[in-house]
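RESIDUES AND SHAPES:
===
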Amino acid sequence: MTREMRDNKGRRVVVVTGTGVVTSLGLGKNENWTKLTAGRSGIRRITRFPTEGLRTVIAGTVDCLDVGPYSAPALTIAMAMAAAQEALGEAAIGSAGSFPGPLYLATPPAELEWPQRRLLWEERAGDELTGYKRLLAAARASRHEELEEKFQFASAAEHLARRFGTRGLPVSVSTACASGATAIQLGVEAIRRGDADAALCIGTDSSVQLEALIRFSLLSALSTRNDPPELASRPFSKDRDGFVMAEGAGALILEAYDSARARGAAILGVVKGCGEKADDFHRTRSRPDGTAIIGAIRNAIEDAGVRPDEIDYINAHGTSTPENDKMEYLSLKAVLGDHLDKTPISSNKSMIGHTLSAAGAVEAVFSLLSISNGVVPPTINYRNPDPDIPMDVVPDTSRSASVRTVLSNSFGFGGQNASLVLAAL
């Protein structure tokens, strides 16, 4: 019997055999990668709802999928479906409606939007059940399917599990902007433990809706540079003024190396390390000494069993907010030291915006594409470098480079911090 391949810590090696992506740049990896490496922006004026009187009127909306009548849950599911279909097609694993592993889904918290609240109160055709009476009637009859599918983000995992036939109960996770990376970490841990040979990990988010936009605006977190929209997101620039909300989905098929090789699958890369560390300092701000972010980065590198000077490229969290960008630099410097000075770094968010719960998964897909193509995407709008953030930010034009090991960062409000180390086989 052939001995199973293990890493230098004696754990099963976890590889990626399929990826898929949807962002404001378009549908699928080919369109996204072509536009991303060309420095194209997907940020545009919002047309989905009225924006008169708002300080921010731009976002990275996904307008290439028809989900009429529109609702955020419907778009969340549609993007996840599209990304997963692409990843499954590439991995060629299982059969239609039968995926041989669990589902880990990063998705926003469940919340009713105002159109759905109005719909819930409206009179049903042929009876007089409205509002609370309607809920009670559904409870008595144990018929909740209609309400669940219309109103609950939690139904996203159920939809995907039924569509793709994943094993066991689907797991939904919401760790703010670290959610996508957290979903991948859960898949990695399940395979390492031997609980599964494969996992479907998805991050999806369609939070560009009126209430969410207003809330982030009230936190002074959003860019107000509305004209032209494509110049708004400026990670690591001195004149950065906030992030740009965006939508998207990223999907990864994770497998144990031996299982993937046994079925002849093409291997796109290895998830070598995952690290996380929580921060209890503030609801939106990072601890000033950076200990939590430093801990997440250091834990990922140590989990991967690599040295800091083996990192070839950093796919930054890089939100374009004044504090977050500086904290990421200080934390990277604390872990990588002088090696940071010569390590290329870029932020996909300069072009696609901040996809929130989906960001960690979307950016993991792009990191793997950097490894396979030997290309580092640019950070566009980097024309006024911040002297307090002296890094090798790849400006405006993509760069050819030998990329074998990537550090991808995801840091979220509420103190959720996660980092991934992705590498060539």
